[in-house]
Amino acid sequence: MTTEKHFDTIIDNIGQLLTMDHGDGPLKGEEMSKLKVSEHAALAIRDGLVAWIGTHEEAQSLKATERIDAEGKLVTPGLVDPHTHLVFGGSREHEMALKQQGVPYLEILKRGGGILSTVGATREASEEELLTKARFHLNRMISYGVTTVEAKSGYGLDRPTELKQLRVAKQLNESHPADIVSTFLGAHAIPPEFKGRSDEFLTEMLDLLNDIEKGQLAEFVDIFCETGVFTVEQSREFLKKAKEKGFSVKIHADEIDPLGGTEMATEIGATSGDHLVGASDKGIHALGETDTIAVLLPGTSFYLNKGKFANARGMMDAGAAVALSTDFNPGSSPTENLQFIMNLASLQLKMTPEEIWNAVTINAAYAINRGDSAGKLAPGRKADIVLWDVPNYHYVPYHYGVNHTHTVMKNGRIIYRKEKLHEHISAH
Ligand code: NIG
Ligand code: FE
User: Fold this and answer.
1) In the chain, fewer beta carbons within 10 Å around the N or the C end?
2) CB of 46 within 8 A of CB of 2?
3) Residues 6+ apart with CB under 8 A from 96
4) Which ligand 1 atom sits closest to the C-alpha of 255?
5) For the Amidohydrolase-related domain, which residue ranges apply (predicted)?
């Protein structure tokens, strides 16, 4: 019997345990309010995997090398952040004044700033510099409870720099405990050398897919479908060709202007459509009818400050699967804090705590083809676990702007523990 075997670690005295173990597939529409909450629970780990889940009482007779007393805390799967621009050079704090003057995001880009300013800094940075910087941001994500991260390229817009960014993501995946899922976003903007020749630029980026495939440098292909960047038709053709080459596809759609990218994403069988702030009724309906996951990024709406957020409730009413993400990037969403996104989802997207937890775990995992390995705790699954310093799961989307994690585990090993105050302070 499993209970007689020895475990590596037992976490007992869990106040509330969320497993997200509600069957197969992403949760769609009404199913998103499902949440299995076990009180007074315990969980055992062996060889980096969840080996047993039961009650605190049952756990007392089990043997383990290490025992962690959760002290009544909330325990959940490690969070999954399914849309980030993790690898880039430089930063864009100098654009803050322009933002304050009301210069729109797309106008800054048109003037050669925005994404193109980061492209300059990323082209200049060495691979080593990019790796150090990306590791810094990734470590911060971990501290907020994230154990699996999607990372996009898209700040090279030329062969050497795009490949450099993708190699950095691959190196991070191999050298860091977090799991990284890589996306090629060469079609993120039109570089100055291709100004007025966007079709030629897309052909060049498609050509790069052969190298990417050979080096197994990315699993997804993405494109920024937006006014002044790539049209819906260009995006459709580009992603279709990427699919023919065997890549899964995603799309930055209807982020700023409502162009109809949402319905296009569903038509071509994209794994996810991301942003969708300006999604049409037709697009929202199509999300409910298909398997394309709506990855919503309320941090970007907050930071672009136009007062418009994605219609998450409408999408769930239509039967769509919704996931949430930071969109971590140096321009439209400079934050690694997925917990803040959970607060925004509550306040601005009117999502319930149950929907929010599913959106940052199991649905986020499906949005990056990791539904079978991340975002859920069950025997045989990876022991990616967060212990939260909160009394219940309603608390995280409620208490905003701070970090609620206590302990973060990846593959059964502790990779982050809440910093301790200096002795001098804690003594008083
Ligand atoms: O998801 N919109 C395109 N890409 C990012 C922003 C990138 C940037 O501003 O550097 C986004 O919002
Ligand atoms: Fe993005």
Assistant:
1) N
2) no
3) none
4) 2
5) 74-414
Q: Tokens 């309010």 identify what position?
A: 33
Residue of 230, 332, 333, 335 best suited for mutating to test ligand 1, as the one with most atoms within 8 Å of CB: 332
| Closest ligand 1 atom to 327 CA | 1
Name every residue whose Cβ is closer than 8 Å to that of residue 4 and which is 6 or more positions away in sequence.
Answer: none
Structural domains present in the chain:
6-77+376-417 (2.30.40.10), 79-367 (3.20.20.140)
Q: How many helices (H) and strands (E) does the chain have?
A: 16, 16
If the chain, 428 residues long, is cut into consecutive pieces of 10 residues, what is the mean pLDDT of each piece?
A: 76 98 95 97 98 98 98 98 98 96 95 96 98 98 98 98 98 98 98 97 98 96 97 98 98 96 98 98 98 98 96 98 98 98 98 98 98 98 98 98 97 93 68
Nearest to 225 by CA among 210, 244, 209, 238: 238
Q: Whose CA is nearest to atom 3 of ligand 1?
A: 224
Sign of torsion, CA 360 362 368 374?
positive
Structure tokens at 42: 């315990």
Query: How remote is the CA of residue 89 from the centroid of ligand 2, in Å?
Result: 16
Q: Give 76 Cα–ligand 1 centroid separation in angstroms.
A: 30
Taking the C-alpha atoms of residue 338 and residue 327, their distance in angstroms, rounded to an integer, is: 9
Q: How many residues does the chain have?
A: 428
Structure tokens at 368: 């990056």
Cα 309 to middle of ligand 2, angstroms: 15
| 85 assigned ligand-binding residue | yes
For ligand 1, atom 1, the nearest C-alpha belongs to 327
The one-letter amino acid code at 151 reads A
